[in-house]
């Protein structure tokens, strides 16, 4: 039975709309050619805080904490450069590990843990690997290797400024943007 008092959320950085369009077209290619549709269930993004359940009554508190957090965080550069993989199941657009990106992820997860007790144990036990997934979960090993042959040397490069922290919620079938928080600066 589904708990109706809790909702599933995650926090991410999203690229500008025109880059989301390009990455979504790549996801659609994965769905059509490699029968991997799972990545289409969320907008293109870089996850900062992995999915977590929260009591619906606590949503205003989460929003307040995120609004407080972004006041001290500046807009930041983000660079997408080529494709990479978590073999043998995930292919993604590579996101460069800039100091700004590593810092905001650490600060955000520490802030959520200390103020709301939100912790993703698995994510906490491994290093942060920023990426923008285009094929995963339902990508079979056979299709992974075929797709990797197609994408491993393919060029993709974008530099842009991220100006929002985005709270996404799961509606039961896919992830959607719930609210954006403007970064200072």
Automatic annotation (TrEMBL):
Transmembrane segments: none annotated. It comes from the Bacteria. InterPro entries: 2H_phosphoesterase_YjcG-like (IPR050580), Cyclic_Pdiesterase (IPR009097). Coiled coil: none annotated. PANTHER family: PHOSPHOESTERASE SAOUHSC_00951-RELATED, PHOSPHOESTERASE YJCG-RELATED. This is Phosphoesterase HXTX. It comes from Stanieria cyanosphaera (strain ATCC 29371 / PCC 7437). The lineage of its organism: Bacteria, Bacillati, Cyanobacteriota, Cyanophyceae, Pleurocapsales.
